[in-house]
Amino acid sequence: MIVLERIQRFLEAREGKEQVKPSQDQTINVNEAVSAVAFYYEKIRTIIDYQDEHLIRQNAIRRILGRRLILANTSDDIATGVLKELVRFRYFPNGTVPLKKIKEISSILDVYLGVLRELSETHALTDSDQDWLISMAACAIDEHLMPMTEEHALVDLMYDVLEPEIEGNITGTDDVMRRLQIYIACYRVLLRPDIDRLRAMLLARCFPEWGNTESPDVKRLAEEYKSTAKKIDYIIHHPSSKKLLPSFRRYRIPFVVFFTVIRHAGADILKDPEALEKEVVKTCEQFYAVQRKRLNSRTVRAFIYIFLTKMVLGLSVELPYDLITVHHVNTLPLLVNILFPPVLLAFMTMTVKMPTKENTKMIVQSIKEIAYPDTPKEVFVSQTYRVKRKRPVATFVFSVLYAVLFAVSFGFVGWLLHRLDFNLVSAAVFFVFFCLITFFGINLRRSIKDLIIIKPKGNFFMILIESFFLPIVQVGRWLSFNISRVNIFIFIFDVLIELPLQALLEITEEWFAFLKEKKDEME
To answer: Residue 60: its pLDDT value, please?
Structure first.
């Protein structure tokens, strides 16, 4: 059976991931006192640079690379610095990263930095090109240091289960693109990559020559770079991805639960359907409890991030404006802008409905369909996707209606603010916070909704509420992605604090190493 072969491959991948810890004299070691300072600095920085937990290390590598390119010239120097900082930040335990990794990471950098230098020499390098190449290098390094073999095997399993059930020409083109889009949907649903990780996956899958670190043809890669990047973005933004992703989300939870059950109980549990069912129910209950706690902690993190990076700046504009224009602080708008965001965020996360027992039963059924292909299908049933014909008139009418909905949503909120005596600046601050908090709240609630496999029932009242908030969420999404680019606190940390701090930490570590050497000479 193909599915069982995939499961076996997943188990083999898991066994291959377990490695013997290298001996102490073969590893990268840093001073523990220096590491403690770096670790707490990194913790503080992650608070003001909100991102999903599974992307933090990848983005840290991206940040370190960008800084190291300024300070070092050779790939070996950059690789050494990157690995030392990762250990210093405690992304890896001290004394566990083999020294040979320096050469391996240096070989990866030779490819991407080689392309970067080739483009620079031909005056074809833009800022976006440099960001793209550094981001791809960061993803390649992260994948090399922490291979996601098990996770990729799980994506293969999900693809193997779902691909035969997708009927119709979803891409409107060829079957190769169809299968690639199904795989991308599985990858995005299960691993939740950012745009950089998604590009890196496609670069490795569709352009394997970029992974050739033994004898890379850097000149040819540089010549083909523009077309390569363009093709990858075309694949990512292909219209069919919008069709597949929403419907695939509900299938995430059975594969994640299956992944967890196999890791904890082993493959032998598949021989006993009753034992498998009990273990699945137990795992689901644990998932529900863990995600509830994680939702609470992520809510606190999200609010701290918004308060430190957005509200402080907003209120620093609102207060002086009141004092300059009306010569006193307009108390009610100020209190609303301070208290409303955390109350709204707390309300959105506290009112999310947790999965029911019926949901758990459906997960059990879906896992039986995964593990035992002869099981009658209730979850993974055939689905038909068609390429919709473009209808200009209908598109125009719907666009006009959406513009009206947009005006109604923001017009109603603006009318309320006017009634509460908000001035132009305090109203602008409120709108920014309101949109951002709503967007963050929806994203946080999704972590619980991703546990639900049962299709939601239609509710006219909820449809009205969602329609009203849709324009607000869309603006919040736009603000989140664009305001983050001008985060003054990140600039302060990266340029004014981190750059000199890392230099000081390295000098301090070298000083401690020198003192230790002198002490050893005296013994």
So the answer is: 93
Predicted confidence at residue 478, as pLDDT, reads 86
Residue 27 pairs in a beta bridge with: 98
Find out whether 382 and 167 touch, Cβ atoms under 8 Å.
Answer: yes
Do 477 and 500 sit in the same domain of this protein? Answer: no
Span 56-80, average pLDDT: 89
**Which of 521, 495, 450 lies closest to 246, judged by CA?**
450
Q: Given a cut of 60, is residue 501 above it in pLDDT?
A: yes
Task: Tell me the pLDDT tens digit for each residue of 365-423.
Answer: 999 988 887 888 888 877 766 656 667 777 788 888 888 988 999 999 999 998 888 88
Residue 258 CB partners (closer than 8 Å, separation 6+): 157, 280, 367, 370, 371
Judged on CB neighbours under 10 Å (0-12, 13-18, 19+), 162 is: buried
Sign of CA dihedral 217, 218, 222, 225: positive
Bin 72: left if φ > 0, else alpha if -120 < ψ < 50, else beta.
beta
Give the burial class of 90: count Cβ atoms within 10 A of its Cβ; 0-12 exposed, 13-18 middle, 19 or more buried.
middle
User: How many whole angstroms separate alpha carbon 180 and alpha carbon 166?
Assistant: 13
400 C-beta neighbours (distance < 10 Å), count: 10
Return the HEC string of 220-255.
Answer: HHHHHHHHHHHHHHHHHCCCHHHHHHHHHHHHHHHH
Quickly count helices (H) and strands (E) in the chain.
Answer: 21, 2
What stretch of H or E contains 384?
strand 383-384
Residues 464, 370 share a domain: yes
Please write the tens of the pLDDT for every residue from 424-442: 888 888 888 888 889 888 8
Q: CA–CA distance from 257 to each of 116, 152, 190, 281 (Å)? A: 42, 15, 11, 9
Which helix (H) or strand (E) covers residue 383, if one does? strand 383-384
Range 333-350 average pLDDT: 85
Which has the higher per-residue pLDDT, 289 or 381? 289
pLDDT, residue 479, reads 82
Q: Counting beta carbons within 10 angstroms of the beta carbon of residue 505, is it exposed (0 to 12), middle (13 to 18) or buried (19 or more)?
A: buried
**Closest to 60 (Cα-Cα) out of 171, 145, 163, 138:** 138
- Same domain, residue pair 475 and 346: yes
Assigned domain for 174 exists: no
Three-state SS string over 22-84 comes to: CCHHHECCCCHHHHHHHHHHHHHHHHHCCCCHHHHHHHHHHHHHHHHHHHCCCHHHHHHHHHH
Binned at pLDDT 50, 70 and 90, residue 489 comes out as low
Range of the domain at 409: 255-486
Q: Which residues pair with 166 in a beta bridge?
A: 383
If one counts the domains in the chain, the total is 2
Do 432 and 300 share a structural domain? Answer: yes
439 and 479 fall within a common domain: yes
